Amino acid sequence: MAKFALIIVCLGSIIGPLGMASVNVAIPDLAADLHANAKMVSWLPTLFILSSVVFMLPAGKLADNYGRKSVYASGLALNAFASFMCALGDSIEWVLFWRFVQGGASSMIFATGIAIITSVTPAAKRGAALGIASACIYVGLTIAPAVGGWLTELWGWRAVFLFQVPLVVALLTLIALRLTGEWKNQHKTRFDWWGTGIFALFASSLVYGLSVLPTLLGVVMLALSAGSLSLFVLHQSRSRRPLIRVQMFRDNRVFSLSLCTSLLMYASNFPLVFLMSLYLQYVKGLSPLHAGQVILVQALSMAIMAPIAGKLADKVQARLIATLGCVIVACGLLVLSQISIQTSMGYIVTSLLLIGFGFGLFSTPNNNAIMGAVQQHEVGVASATLNLSRTIGNLFGMSLVNLMVHYYLGDAQFTAEQPPALVHTFEIALLMSLTFVAIACVTSTLRGRAGNKI
């Protein structure tokens, strides 16, 4: 059962990122077809991540109460439906709405996948299992740009949304026929609707506030975000049935600092794929297919390193391997930060390989440290929190890039006449990413020795 559950989660871990990341390569064609400006286009990845953040903790709590397999399968089905609706869109507003729905479905998948693996895998083999699952995520990310570029060139941007629907239907059939059993807590707890609403207010006001800075409204929204986050922490600490026990962060340094490191690393990496796709197509003049082939080298190196790092994490302290990965990512970003309009493709590919190698070395040991620091009855919430740190990192990094795009490009449509402004945005974003990774190196080092509680 453990092996088959791992196979199911791995297949979902390929399909999910494949559907999410392939869209980035299709953005120029989508923007041209729907007459969308730079500001609207930049919300495509941001709304997806925002929705994932808002619904991640509720999905983890529901999985613990009603079954991790059930929530996982429901997330797959909703993801396929939302993707199909995106393909029918005749306006950017329609696509943005269904991308938001798709992000919520993604939270149901990723909040439960790692929890399922952790529930059925012995602690001594957990690192290897998580390494395989992480590798599958990177396989999805690896082939996504090439698949997205190929589909866009052959059938247009709508095909990028449609192609994953039959894949999800096949996976759901496999789950129904072969994956028996369920994993959930023995006793249900009441759902914290107030906590969910407060957290949604925090995430939404943060994203919107960053997008309209430096206006007064932006400052007010960021203040609202900070206030609602403080209220959420206070509410969770006093609630008898919280979405997440905030004491887990206070009492468990390995858990809290590993999550902080994860947030910083993903904040540095997620905007890179979005901007690199635009840079390669608008600045370097590559086709969607060729741009996708260049971008995939980063995810390919991640996919190669993740299972190796997972096996190492079962034998060597996670913080040592993860910190080394952080340092290698910092070196890759430092190299890439020298990019310009004239930068050669070989230089870009080498930089992306270095970043991918380091990130693959970081991710699995870090995930193993987080899941090994909690008790069995909190596996679902821990899995959701792990993915929440990833999605909040993605959201925060992408929101800052949104701010840069709005400031330097504004309401203009992307055109071939904009390379200087786009390159300047890219340069600032890389410096931001480098700063995040430098802080992550420190938090990773300070986390302490990981245990194996599960």
TrEMBL record:
Domain of life of the source: Bacteria
Major localization listed first in the record, in broad terms: membrane
InterPro entries associated with the record: MFS, MFS_dom, MFS_trans_sf, Sugar_transporter_CS
All copies of domain Major facilitator superfamily (MFS) profile, residue ranges: 5-447
Record's bilayer topology term: Multi-pass membrane protein
Regions crossing the membrane: 40-59, 71-90, 96-117, 129-151, 157-179, 191-210, 216-234, 254-279, 291-308, 320-339, 345-362, 392-409, 421-446
Keyword field: Membrane, Transmembrane, Transmembrane helix, Transport
PANTHER family hit by this protein: MAJOR FACILITATOR SUPERFAMILY MULTIDRUG TRANSPORTER MFSC
Protein known as: MFS transporter
